Amino acid sequence: MLWFKTNRVKLLTTLLLAAVAATMLLPFLWMLSTSVKKQIDVFHDPMIWIPASMQWNNYKEIWFGSHPFALYYLNSIKVTALSVIGVVVISSATAYGFARFQFKGKNFVFLIFLATMMVPDQVTLIPRFILFNYLGIYNTHWALILPGIFTAIGIFLLRQTYLTIPGDFSEAAKIEGANHFHIWTRIFIPLSKPAMVSLIILSFTWNWNEFVNPLVFLTSKKLFTVPLGLTNFVDDSGTNYPQMMAAAVSSILPVIALFLIGQRWFIQGVASSGIKG
Q1: CA dist., res. 35 & res. 59, Å (int)
Q2: Which of 205, 209, 193 is nearest to 257 (CA)?
Q3: How many Å apart are CA 140 and CA 129, to the nearest integer?
Q4: Are both 117 and 85 inside the same structural domain?
Q5: Is residue 189 a part of any domain in this protein?
Q6: Model confidence over 62-88: pLDDT tens digits?
Q7: Residue range 156-165, pLDDT digits in tens
Q8: Is residue 59 in a domain?
Q9: What transmembrane ranges does the database entry give (predicted)?
Q10: DSSP string over 189-252
């Protein structure tokens, strides 16, 4: 009897979560459906989920039409890839220092790092604008890449993971003659794969979807990233909803693909780091 009650609760919970998930997926499915429709069928009543004739020309116009969407993609790939590489290297090295080095004021410095998470990004826009203009990197991709490689969340996530690695590993490596660089690269990084993947997914998503910084620091259209190029396309296309949705689908696919590939490690990494919400 207890087994039946337990399984019934699990079944009801699963059905409830499935219903909630379905409602979350509806906007994406509508966007996907609209991207292959004719303009006249977008607001057809009743709604047509699967159009009789797939309009793949909407995607062709996006990628090879008057708007250089392929160039926006290349720009986003460049900015995101360099930012992710920088985040992983710098966050990992810094987290290793906080987790394994002992120095005066370590906890206070770490609290200062965490305190930066409470500062809204918009507060630093003007100082960064002045600084980037002075350094000569305004209206370049470096204005997006350099700030993107420093993140307190990445340092916190990896530090929490490194603290769970037994100190005996480090001591054994030191006896064998390994220095801190070898311990970091050959022990800590391989043992923290889930946290690393989590950081890569989070950093990729943040940088790929970033809109405010490109809007402020980029003025040349040839440097536009996907979010800025998408907004520019929407402003120019007016009410051409099928092409707008085709552009939106194209912009979100890399994030979905990356998450599906690394979701197992992502869940493990977030669980092991203690991050919630």
Answers
A1: 8
A2: 205
A3: 12
A4: yes
A5: yes
A6: 888 777 788 888 999 999 999 999 999
A7: 888 888 888 8
A8: no
A9: 70-96, 108-130, 142-162, 183-206, 241-261
A10: HHHTHHHHHHHHHHHHHHHHH--HHHHHH---GGG--HHHHHHHHHHHHTT-HHHHHHHHHHHH
Extract the residue ranges of the chain whose pLDDT is less than 70. 1-6, 236-238, 265-277
Residue with tokens 């809204």: 120
User: 141 with 7, same domain?
Assistant: no
- Tell me the C-alpha distance between 193 and 141, whole Å: 29
CB 199 within 8 A of CB 158: yes
Q: For the domain that residue 265 is a member of, what is the CATH number?
A: 1.10.3720.10
Pair 77, 22 in one domain: no
Phi, psi of 18 (to 5 degrees): -65, -40
What is the model's pLDDT at position 130?
92
Structure tokens at 108: 């206070």
pLDDT at 90: 92
Same domain, 75 and 181: yes
- Amino acid 277: pLDDT: 43
Q: Which two tokens stand for residue 100?
A: 């394994």
Q: Which of 50, 52, 16 is nearest to 33 (CA)?
A: 50
Same domain flag for 77 and 46: no
> How many structural domains does the chain have?
2
Query: For residue 238, what pLDDT is reported?
Result: 67
Record the tokens describing residue 118, joined without a space.
């409470």
User: Are 135 and 199 in a shared domain?
Assistant: yes
Residue-range definition of the domain harbouring residue 34: 1-54
Which amino acid, one-letter code, is at 50?
Answer: I
Residue 61 domain-assigned (yes or no)? no
Neighbouring C-beta atoms of residue 223, cutoff 10 Å: 21
Same domain, 104 and 229: yes
Going by the DSSP 8-state scheme, the letter that residue 38 receives in this structure is -
